[in-house]
Amino acid sequence: MVGDAVSSGIAKFDRKTEKFQTWSLPPELNGDYVQINQVAPEHWHADGKVWLQDAGTYTVLRLDLKSGKFEAFAPFAIPRPNIYDVISDPQNNVYFTVLGKEDIGRIEAGTRKITLRQTPTAGSGPRRGMLDQEGRLWFGENRGDRIGMFDTKTGQFKEWPAPTPGSWPYDVTGDRNGEAWGGGEFTDTVQRLNPRTGEFVEYLLPRFTNIRRVFVDNSTTPVTFWVGNNHGASVVKLEPVN
C-alpha cells in the first residue's frame, strides 16, 4: 500500500490477483495543494484502518478500508509545521514525526487523543523512522544532525550526534540485534549505532547516493543493509563483516 501523490489518495496492490485498489480523498479534503506521501498500513488488521499523512495541509489522515471514509487530524494550528512520517504500532495507534519542529506525536486509535512530545534538541526536525519490537521509535533528526529514539514504554528520549558532522540523518531503522542503522543525507555515510555503548560504525558509500529511506534485512547473518541511490538509478546493498 502506497501514497498516490498525483490522485490525492492511496493505492493497494494485491500480489495474488495482481490488481490495484485505490481510495481518493473526498472533495472536502482534496485540492491542488494535497500531496499524500507516507502511509502506515502495517497494522490495519487491528481495526481495519490505515494511517497516512498529507504533505500539503500537514495533517494526519485515517482511512476506514471497509467504508472508504477518511478522517482528518490537525495536531497543530495554522500555520502548521511539516508533519513528515506516520508509523503505526501493533494496536494501530499512530506516531508521527514533525520535520518542521522537534516533536514526536501520537494519536490514540480509540479515543483520537493527540499527544505531542518534544525532543531534547530544539528544532531537531524528526523526519523518517520505524518502531522496533521493543517499542522504541527510531528516527532521523534531520535538522539536528542526530539519530533519535523515543521509548514508547518509558516516554523518554535519547539522542546520538552523527559521528561525521553534516550527515543530517534522514531515516533510521532497527535490526534484530537491537542496533540502529541510519543514513547521512549529504555525507553518503551509513551509520550503525550500538545504543548500549553509544558506539558507531560508519560505512562510506562508493558514490554520491543522497540517502533517504533505509532498510535492514534481518533474515541474513549478519544483517544486510539496503538503500536506494536517489541520484544513481540503482540500489545499494551493504554487507557488514560482523
Structural description of this entry:
It is a single chain. By secondary structure, the chain is an all-beta fold. The chain has two domains: 1-118, YVTN repeat-like/Quinoprotein amine dehydrogenase (Methylamine Dehydrogenase, Chain H, 7 Propeller); 128-242, Methylamine Dehydrogenase, Chain H (7 Propeller), CATH 2.130.10.10. The chain contains no helices and 22 strands. The strands form six sheets. A four-stranded antiparallel beta sheet has the order 4-5-6-7, with no helix packed on it. Strand 12 and strand 13 form a beta hairpin. The model has no long low-confidence stretch (mean pLDDT 96).
**Estimated radius of gyration:** 18 Å
User: CATH topology of the largest domain, anyone?
Assistant: Methylamine Dehydrogenase, Chain H
Annotated CATH homologous superfamily of the largest domain: YVTN repeat-like/Quinoprotein amine dehydrogenase
Number of contiguous helices? 0
- Spans of at least 5 consecutive residues with low confidence: none
- Which H/E pattern describes the elements? EEEEEEEEEEEEEEEEEEEEEE
The percent of residues in helical segments reads under 10%
State the major sheet. 4 strands, antiparallel
Mean model confidence by pLDDT: 96
Identify the strand order in the major beta sheet: 4-5-6-7
Strand content: over 45%
Oligomer: single chain
Please identify, by name, the CATH architecture of the largest domain: 7 Propeller
Query: How many domain modules?
Result: 2
Give the C-level CATH assignment of the largest domain.
Mainly Beta
Number of strands: 22
What is the overall shape? globular
Helix-strand category: mainly beta
- End-to-end CA span: 34 Å
